[in-house]
Amino acid sequence: MRKEDCFYLGKIVSKYSFKGEVLVKIDTDEPELYDNMESVFVALRNNLVPFFIEKCRLHKSQLLRIDFEEVNSEDDADKIMGSELYLPLSFLPELNGNKFYFHEVIGFTVIDNVHGDIGTIQSINDTTSQALFEILKGDKQLLIPINDDIIKKVDRENKTIHVTTPEGLVDLYLS
């Protein structure tokens, strides 16, 4: 399995017991979707390695307490401490309406209500306080904030996102 075919679920942040149980901080708005998993991919030395789960349950709000089949001691748990966990993209629940996963809109055309076609989404920058579409129009890159006030319609069938950008924003890039 390749990372490109998976989504980031979370990271092993601490040991829970001397029997090898670990706590995973998960990156999701719906943690309850991931209790009772049977397996995950653990990133070890630039490879995704399948790990089978004996028991998995929610622990507090954003933590999963996981007992892996092959992790039976503190030493075993130490070997995977800090590792990232991944699941295949097919495990993501389907979204509809104007909700979307960042990976699914790469390549979509962005249509502004004033300027029309303002380019194609090349990537999403989510390292800033406000996630941004990184859009390429010819040789120019545009950065458009991702928020409900700007996004008016996500059209999966036609691979377009319709937006109403703040006045002057697109002009900054295309002038």
UniProtKB/TrEMBL annotation:
Keywords, sorted A to Z: Chaperone, Cytoplasm, Ribosome biogenesis, rRNA processing
Alphabetical list of InterPro entries matching this protein: PRC_barrel-like_sf (IPR011033), PRC_RimM (IPR056792), RimM (IPR011961), RimM_N (IPR002676), RimM_N_sf (IPR036976), Transl_B-barrel_sf (IPR009000)
Residue ranges occupied by any Ribosome maturation factor RimM PRC barrel domain in the UniProt entry: 103-169
Molecular function terms, GO-annotated: ribosome binding
Major subcellular location class: cytoplasm
Domain RimM N-terminal positions: 9-88
Subcellular location as annotated: Cytoplasm
GO cellular component terms listed in the entry, alphabetical order: cytoplasm; ribosome
One BP annotation, GO: ribosomal small subunit biogenesis
Pfam family, one: RimM
Family as reported in the entry's similarity comment: Belongs to the RimM family.
Function field: An accessory protein needed during the final step in the assembly of 30S ribosomal subunit, possibly for assembly of the head region. Essential for efficient processing of 16S rRNA. May be needed both before and after RbfA during the maturation of 16S rRNA. It has affinity for free ribosomal 30S subunits but not for 70S ribosomes.
Domain notes: The PRC barrel domain binds ribosomal protein uS19.
HAMAP family: Ribosome_mat_RimM
Alphabetical list of PANTHER family matching this protein: RIBOSOME MATURATION FACTOR RIMM
SUBUNIT field: Binds ribosomal protein uS19.
Protein name stated in the entry: Ribosome maturation factor RimM
Species the sequence originates in: Maribacter algarum
GN (gene name): rimM
